[in-house]
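Example 9 (inverse folding). The structure is encoded as follows.
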């Protein structure tokens, strides 16, 4: 197997990193001199502890790139990495050049161990290949004269006849979806076209707009979420049929947070409710009615999917909120309202999904809420929003999958969400 495909989450690689890292940390910490134990080690420990506190305060209180605080085990591994660096630093003055090289290598192994343990917490990079840009090909933009639509009372799969020579797998293309109306500066997204899209006559397939979390970007769904394989597997089980999936960018940068709203920060809602659907209609040949158009996402993207479903119900007929939150947030409610709406609570409540659902019924909208069984933070929030959506008259369903709040869980969720949405869209029975 190619080393790029070795698992960083399970198997021998993380175990070997743990062994190498702890042995290296022990080697950096041990010495036979009294001066080392009475002065240098305490200095390294105090420095590492102080730097860890500084990192946590900087990230959680000052910089605040994430709505939630750093998890405890992530903080622990940050402390381990800093301790390795500090121990190497206090050793340097008493070492010759060969010893310094060894100390640097040992520190690097400690950092590599800690970094991979943080990666194992989020499970964002299952392999080294997942850190690379997704492999893509040119987007198929041509239109066919003959199409197959969903007849009344039937599903598309019941009338579809796959032609000979149809590709076995779908295609993935990198695309620029400009913020023509919103002015939003989005990063490139991705489009998955299933095998049936290459056929003539072409079935008018439904569309799922798919959103990643924050921090993150569209490529995360391909590299970390394995969505292309999920869709190829679905297509293989349904004679080449699968939804067309548009992986869009609602935040504009890895650490950005637009709240998925039209606010002082950005017009992210307009981007997803108008610019993205307009781009799909212009560049792709698909079904265009609201029943055939869904939105889905994880974490921030899950919250965003619910927001679009209730604020643009004329566009999206169904949604999958996977591991989302009870409201869009920059960290705290007050901070969110202040930064996004200048402190105008009414402006926030006008688009906040909980408030929208409290005053409006959505009998023609279907929503799937999902969360990991071990997700103690987002689980209660998902139950809260599921209850609110049900009370608002939606056709709702709540499902759990094993795991917490990480990409292993998100992969399991999208595997369930794709067929669920396909049924709401009239693709399959």
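The amino acid assigned to each position is listed next.
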């Amino acid at each position: 197997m190619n080393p790029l495909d070795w698992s960083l989450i399970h198997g021998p690689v993380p175990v070997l990193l743990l062994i190498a890292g702890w042995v290296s940390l022990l080697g950096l910490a041990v010495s036979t001199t009294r001066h080392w134990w009475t002065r240098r080690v305490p200095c390294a420990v105090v420095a590492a502890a102080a730097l860890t506190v500084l990192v946590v305060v900087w990230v959680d209180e000052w910089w605040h790139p994430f709505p939630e605080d750093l998890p405890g085990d992530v903080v622990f591994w940050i402390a381990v990495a800093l301790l390795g660096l500090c121990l190497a630093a206090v050793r340097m003055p008493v070492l010759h050049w060969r010893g310094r090289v060894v100390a640097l290598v040992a520190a690097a192994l400690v950092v590599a161990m800690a970094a991979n343990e943080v990666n194992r917490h989020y499970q964002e990079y299952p392999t080294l290949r997942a850190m690379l840009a997704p492999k893509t090909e040119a987007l198929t933009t041509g239109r066919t004269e003959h199409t197959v639509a969903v007849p009344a009372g039937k599903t598309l799969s019941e009338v579809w006849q796959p032609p000979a020579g149809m590709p076995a797998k779908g295609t993935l293309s990198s695309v620029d979806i400009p913020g023509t109306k919103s002015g939003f500066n989005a990063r490139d997204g991705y489009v998955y076209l299933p095998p049936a899209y290459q056929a003539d006559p072409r079935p008018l397939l439904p569309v799922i707009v798919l959103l990643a979390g924050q921090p993150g970007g569209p490529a995360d769904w391909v590299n970390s979420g394995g969505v292309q394989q999920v869709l190829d597997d679905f297509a293989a089980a349904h004679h080449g049929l699968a939804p067309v999936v548009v992986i869009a960018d609602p935040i504009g940068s890895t650490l950005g947070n637009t709240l998925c709203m039209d606010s002082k920060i950005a017009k992210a809602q307009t981007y997803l409710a108008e610019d993205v659907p307009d781009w799909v209609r212009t560049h792709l040949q698909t079904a265009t009615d609201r029943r055939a158009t869904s939105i889905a996402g994880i974490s921030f993207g899950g919250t965003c999917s619910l927001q679009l479903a209730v604020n643009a119900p004329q566009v999206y007929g169904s949604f999958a909120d996977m591991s989302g939150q009870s409201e869009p947030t920059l960290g705290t409610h007050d901070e969110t309202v202040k930064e996004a709406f200048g402190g105008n609570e009414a402006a926030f409540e006008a688009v906040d999904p909980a408030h929208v659902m409290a005053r409006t019924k959505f009998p023609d909208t279907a929503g799937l809420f999902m969360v990991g069984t071990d997700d103690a933070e987002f689980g209660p929030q998902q139950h809260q929003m599921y209850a609110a959506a049900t009370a608002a008259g939606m056709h709702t369903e709540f499902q759990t999958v094993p795991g917490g709040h990480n990409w292993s869980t998100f992969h399991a969720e999208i595997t369930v969400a794709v067929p669920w949405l396909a049924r709401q869209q009239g693709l399959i029975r």
